[in-house]
Amino acid sequence: MGAMVKTAGSLRYDADVIIAGAGPAGAAAATHLARLGASVLLLDRVVFPRDKVCGDFVGPSALIELDALGVSQMDGFAAANIGWRGAIYVGGAELISRPFPAVTSMPPYGRVIPRFVLDKFILDAARNAGARVREGCELIHFTADRDSATVEVANSQGSLTLRCRLLIGADGASSKVARLLRGSAPPRRDRFVASRAYFTNVEGPDEQLDLYFDASCLPGYYWLFPTGKGAANVGLGIAVESLPAHDFTPAAMLRRLIREDKALAARLRNARLRGKIAGWPLVTYNHRLPIMSGRVMLIGDAAGLINPLNGEGIQYALQSASWAAETLAHCLHADNFSAPALAPFAARVESELRYDMALARLIVHLISNRTLAPLWIEVFKILAGRARRNGSFADTLAGIFAGLLPARDVLKLLGGTAGEAAQTLAAALASPRGWAALGSGTSQIGFRFACEAAKDPAGLALWLKNASASMAEFGARAAHSGIAGKKKEMFLQAQKLMQSRFRIP
């Protein structure tokens, strides 16, 4: 596995840092840490290059991180397809198509890079920086004490025990490091599943990225992201928990949408499927779950750093790797890897992401009630209609889609403050009059809502409880970020309204 690293004391380590998982988060962290002079051992259970189910869109923020890693200067990177405009469709009809807006210090475009290619780029950066890489080597277990983290690994030759000063879990949404650290698998309400296929001979411009919504696949969305030269990544992401539950697997749902969605079918009318439709689990951010302890930290998908609203994960994988390296630079210098020494990393994740993730989580929890799908679709149409009339509004919508603007800017789309938006939405959910105000068929939605409540009262109660909890979390984050006094009180009133109307405990 490599030479031992001697410390000032009597203990000997196989590496300063062992990283489980050589995807974007793990390989980026390995690059940063090796450049700092740390001895890094990067492990992955598979052999690269390897495929990974993903939308493949690398947004502007992620491109900046890749440039810092030196990836943008690598041979072949400049050939990756550039997407500089986005289109949003609902029920097969185009609502908006617009170039991504210009935002200071950020490129007004993204790239669509298949993970088979992207992950190798970043892994090569780690190797070039001096990190040791061991493929086909899987973490089985770990323990951590005051002096070290001990890691048990297995490969085709057998098992081995390694010692390091710090262990980083970057082993994806199904992270074994995360399960061992937290003592359990992630809650069902945090889980998404994705299906993805590649097509050739796709119609339409290579520079346009399409995002689709349909009442039948809420809470979720599907996409067509061109990879260049008439090829495209076509996929679907959907929350595991919904009311009522979906009857189809994500792969079956994607096949149906490819046939039945007019806009998507138009781009694929002469296309050919390359390979198979593949699936993958995702875990979204939950601030209640720890992402570090003494001598162990989680980054990227292993930490649940996926935005449930747009499925963005690569950006957060690369950013969390950089934040982890910043914290570990001090830990390595002081030879202190205790929980307090690692705490700045968790604080950075919370300060950068918790507000946006709380908003995304609230929206996803609300639309997970599919009996209200006509209401949610009507909201999409209202937003798109306003975007067609208002260029600034359209730029905000396109900027959120592209990852150029934070998700919290969605509040601008609602035309008011966070507190006002929460109060209006709670009122809409609490009475048929509120639904009518949003422009939906009141009697039909009310009838479906009542039928679902009678058929699955426990499921409805769970949805209401989760929605109320998400609203409380978002209200707390918004207040922490500057909403105070009367505006904070509006959030409390909105939560109380939902609790009283629906008798939420």
SSE layout and pairing:
Elements: E1 5-6, E2 12-13, E3 15-20, H1 24-35, E4 40-44, E5 57-58, H2 60-69, E6 81-83, E7 85-90, E8 93-99, E9 110-112, H3 115-129, E10 132-135, E11 138-144, E12 149-155, E13 158-169, H4 176-182, E14 191-200, E15 208-213, E16 220-228, E17 231-239, H5 250-260, H6 262-267, E18 272-283, E19 292-293, E20 296-298, H7 314-334, H8 339-367, H9 373-389, H10 391-402, H11 410-413, H12 418-430, H13 432-437, H14 442-455, H15 457-480, H16 486-502
Parallel strand pairs: 3-4, 3-13, 4-10, 7-15, 13-20
Antiparallel strand pairs: 1-2, 5-9, 6-9, 7-8, 11-12, 12-13, 14-17, 14-18, 15-16, 16-17, 19-20
Helix pairs in contact: 1-3, 1-7, 2-7, 7-8, 8-15, 9-10, 12-16, 14-15, 15-16
The residue ranges in which pLDDT falls below 50 over 5 or more consecutive positions are: 416-421, 483-488, 501-505
Provide the domain count: 3
Give the CATH superfamily of the largest domain: FAD/NAD(P)-binding domain
Q: Major β-sheet, in short?
A: 8 strands, mixed
How does CATH name the architecture of the largest domain? 3-Layer(bba) Sandwich
Structural class: alpha+beta
Would you give the CATH topology of the largest domain?
FAD/NAD(P)-binding domain
Task: Please tell me what the overall shape is.
Answer: globular
* Distance between the amino and carboxyl termini: 54 Å
Instruction: Please give the radius of gyration in angstroms.
Output: 23 Å
Total DSSP E strands: 20
CATH class descriptor name of the largest domain: Alpha Beta
How many distinct helices? 16
β-strand percent reads 15-25%
